[in-house]
Design goal:
Radius of gyration: 26 Å
Order of helices and strands: EHEEHEHEEEEE
CATH topology: Alpha-Beta Plaits
Oligomer: single chain
Number of strands: 9
Helix content: 10-25%
Strand order of the largest sheet: 8-5-7-6-4-1-3-2-9
Number of domains: 1
CATH class: Alpha Beta
Number of helices: 3
Shape: globular
Distance between the termini: 30 Å
Structural class: alpha+beta
Length: 213
């Protein structure tokens, strides 16, 4: 906040002494320095939950309750699905936030309320589940947020894909905020590619997609 203090024109001058360049009565407001643009920074939360036997449908139903995220300050989007051909089913969710402070505020204020209400804790094994936080300033971060509603599947890896670059529409690289975690590579592909050949492919469920209002 900038405060202005008006001084008498005579302050610091002898009574009646001339002043060649008197200060203006209404001095112009100083130009505020431009703050660094942080809009390109994206926080990504990766959640892996191994569902209990026979509870994958209940987990999916509970996951839809996270639609209330769309009004959380700083929230961008959330998506996810079940890893194919894995028993018991493994659910993977990606949540995108604008910053750590807004994410931590949500965790402190609203997370437990939603989690306890949808009873999702009864549908997965916490011992076989994990969360990790990543951050990126990669320009493709904006693209994935813009196109999530049209992306049918993504590939999630901890190392660059060995497929040719032309196979992917875009790749997003994020670094882990915890030194012990590996980096995160998210790829989404062009429709003509043979999806069965893609490692760690995650089909995205349309009913799990949440976007900010």
């Amino acid at each position: 906040m900038v405060f202005f203090c008006s001084l008498s024109l005579r302050e610091g001058l002898g009574e009646g002494e001339p002043h060649e360049n008197p200060p203006p009565v209404n001095p112009p407001k100083p130009v505020r320095p431009k703050t660094q643009n942080k809009q390109n920074t994206l926080l990504i939360k990766l959640i892996k939950c191994q569902t209990l036997p026979g509870k994958s449908k209940d987990f999916a139903t509970a996951q839809r309750a996270w639609a209330t995220l769309k009004t959380a300050p700083g929230f961008h989007a959330q998506c996810g699905g079940f890893v194919p051909n894995q028993t018991p089913p493994l659910a993977i969710i990606l949540a995108f936030w604008d910053s750590l402070p807004n994410y931590y505020r949500f965790m402190k204020v609203s997370h437990d309320q939603i989690f306890n209400h949808n009873k999702q804790a009864l549908t997965y094994n916490p011992q076989e589940s994990s969360t990790a936080l990543y951050q990126t300033s990669h320009p493709n971060g904006k693209l994935i947020l813009k196109n999530l509603h049209t992306i049918a599947a993504i590939s999630i890896n901890d190392e660059p894909s060995n497929l040719p670059a032309t196979a992917w529409a875009k790749t997003l690289h994020a670094h882990a905020l915890t030194p012990t975690d590996k980096p995160l590579f998210i790829n989404w592909h062009h429709p003509p590619i043979q999806t069965l050949l893609i490692p760690n492919l995650l089909p995205l469920r349309a009913d799990w997609l949440v976007r900010s209002e």
